[in-house]
Amino acid sequence: AGGMPLPEGDAVFSIGWNEMFRPFNDDSEIKGMAFAVAFGDENTESTNFPRFGLDMGTINIGYSGNQIQMHKIFHQRRGTAYSLFNRPFGGSDILLEYLPSTEYTFEISGSENFSAATITLLSPASLIDITSHSHSDIIDPQQDLTINWTGGNPSGKIALRVMPHFKPQDGAGMGGKHNQGHPPPPGPHPGRAIVEILDSNPGQYTFTAEQIHNLISEFGADKIVLDVTQFELGEVEHDDKVLHTAMRNGTSVMLNVQ
User: Fold this and answer.
1) What is the 8-class DSSP label of residue 85?
2) What gap in Å lies between CA 197 and CA 4, rounded to an integer?
3) Residue 210 in 3-state DSSP?
4) Is the pLDDT of residue 214 over 80?
5) Which of 102, 125, 157, 238 has its CA 20 to 30 A from that of 149?
6) Structural element, H or E, at residue 211
7) CA-wise closest residue to 69 among 88, 86, 55, 53
8) For every residue of 26-37, which 3-state class applies, written as one string?
9) Taking Cα atoms as reference points, which of 125, 196, 197 lies closest to residue 154?
10) pTM, two decimal places
């Protein structure tokens, strides 16, 4: 999610807002995301989920007097994980609202494999907001692209990602060096993105004209999608295990190429 790899360790507890690439017609509601998994010793032979997920009982998220229960999802090969989504790519039927500088606590009932625990993450004082560009702004790929944003915490790493975006093609008129018989499928292409990780939150970053021009010309993209995400990682010890926490927030704009 948001270009961030899952941290190594015995478990991951993650909360975030607006970090997914989402439809651009729905800016009205801030979408909250939460995910939890504790890994056993058993390997799954699956690259993106290398170890078997343990049952942790029931997990609720408590914040500011609210409590919501996470869906427990079981997979034959990968084990158990917890999410606000009741299926991998479906919409969430639970709204995790954003409150600034608020403690969000995973309340874990526990099981024979994982004892009861509470794990608390602190939300940022404000969410990331891109101020230099709005959706559908036109950019000149021959010029440097400077992005300004507000929000997030002053410390905490920032990930910037620029992805080429393709409109549906009829196979004709595609520029670029890819195979003419197989234009890229429409939509954003995270695998072909430029990703920059900053160690703090400066509120501004410039991509060079060369970077943008190369990204667009190589694949003949007519748009780019720009994400700015902040992620704050932590560690908690529990039952001689190292549990990783991740609090993320970010936003994105889609820009038209001149």
Assistant:
1) B
2) 10
3) helix
4) yes
5) 102
6) helix 209-219
7) 86
8) CCCCCCEEEEEE
9) 125
10) 0.80
Measured CA to CA, the distance from residue 124 to residue 232 in angstroms comes to: 9
Pairing of strands 71-75, 66-69: unpaired
Per-residue pLDDT tens over the stretch 69-108: 999 999 888 899 999 876 555 555 677 889 999 999 999 9
Length of the chain measured in residues = 258
Residue 132 one-letter amino acid: S
Residue listed under structure tokens 């010029």: 143
According to DSSP, the residues that pair with 146 across neighbouring strands are 206
Which residue from 48, 41, 31, 37 is spatially nearest to 12, judged by alpha carbons? Answer: 37
Other Cβ atoms within 10 Å of 239 Cβ, number = 12
- The angle at the Cα of 107, spanning 104 to 112, to the nearest 5 degrees, equals 150
CA angle 81, 116, 237 (to 5 degrees): 85
CB 10 within 8 A of CB 242: yes
Q: 79 near 56, Cβ under 8 Å?
A: no
